[in-house]
Amino acid sequence: RDLSSPRALVIRDGVRKHIAGREVARGAIVGLGEGGRVPADGWLAENDGLQVDESLLTGESVPVRKTAASGAALADGVRPGGDDLSFVWSGSLVVRGSGLCVVTAPGRASEIGKIGMVLAGLETEAPRLRVQTRRLVLWFGATGLAASILVVVLYGLLRGSWLEAALAGIALGMSMLPEEFPVVLTIFMARGARRMSRNRVLTRRAAAIETLGSATVLCTDKTGTLTRNRMRIAELRLPDGRVLLPEDLQGGVPDSEFHLLVELGILASAP
User: Fold this and answer.
1) Cβ atoms of 230 and 205 closer than 8 Å
2) What is each CA distance from 74 to 11, 67, 70, 117, 177, in whole angstroms?
3) Strands 64-65 and 41-53: what pairing?
4) Which of 6, 74, 117, 191 is most buried (CB neighbours < 10 A)?
5) Percent with pLDDT over 90 in the chain
6) In the Cβ-directed half-sphere of 35, how many Cα atoms lie within 13 Å?
């Protein structure tokens, strides 16, 4: 939410003024400078060595170059990512240079706004443990209510005191209600969080403990944070199934076919 509504430097009647990003309208002229965030999607009317970090939208940590363009040269369907585009997108960070941007899609119409709309429409599924506990509590409640009604009726018919029958039914119902379930679940979650903290993992939500406890495969992809932001060869594999590991390349490439594979890989890579 903070990134989707930064401060914007707009030019109105030849005067530069700072306004909230949510107040930027279509067709406005916005000034971009180093360290600032783009307040809305638009095309560049002026460009002075502008480089923008679009990792918020593309996941690529390397800034991209921008070029200026006229309104007639614009094309529909341009997507974030890649150098020498004349478009900038809301939420991206200006890391170098300056320029002027003509807004074409502010607010919810921007790319990051569309992402926010999709996220707002997601329905959060209740954890399985909570669903199962709710079902068990409802079953206990229905059983206790039925037993209490039965006690009231039998007590009143057999002994003739309906007041005592009502009190006995209430006492039985209260004794059958599972009041300790929330306490037990809270203790279990706290113990799970404590065990995870020993492995240097902090949990903000109790549902994450249950999810991680039932997970069998965990897939992550965050280049530059969980990795070295550098690609490397894991293995070389030929169509016939032969495999060469990087450790085997220390003394050179022994096979002519592997040698050709390495040579083609070097030629296909940037220097």
Assistant:
1) no
2) 22, 12, 7, 26, 67
3) antiparallel
4) 6
5) 0
6) 0
Residue 149 CB neighbours (<10 A): 13
Q: Are 129 and 211 in contact (CB under 8 A)?
A: no
Are the C-beta atoms of 33 and 9 separated by less than 8 Å? yes
- Taking CA atoms, 124 is separated from 119, 189, 209, 213, in Å, by 10, 20, 16, 19
Pick from 91, 119, 93: nearest CA to 106 = 91
Q: Give CB contacts under 8 A, 24+ apart, made by 176-179.
A: 176/140, 176/143, 176/144, 176/147, 176/148, 177/140, 177/141, 177/144, 178/136, 178/137, 178/140
- Virtual torsion, Cα 19, 25, 29, 33, nearest 10 deg: 50
Handedness of CA 243, 248, 250, 252 (dihedral sign): negative
pLDDT in tens, 9-20: 787 777 777 777
Task: Work out the number of other CB atoms within 10 angstroms of the CB of residue 159.
Answer: 11
Q: Measured between alpha carbons, how far is 223 from 231 in angstroms, rounded to an integer? A: 10
Known catalytic residue at 221:
yes
Supply the pTM of this predicted model: 0.53
**Predicted confidence (pLDDT) per residue in 189-240, tens digit:** 788 788 888 888 887 777 777 777 777 887 776 655 566 656 677 888 888 8
Instruction: Give the position of tokens 């341009």.
Output: 78
Dig out the tokens for 266 from the structure: 């070097």
Which are the contacts of 73, defined by CB distance < 8 A and separation ≥ 6? 86
Tokens of 63: 């800034």
**What's the count of helices (H) and strands (E) in the chain, helices before strands?**
7, 9
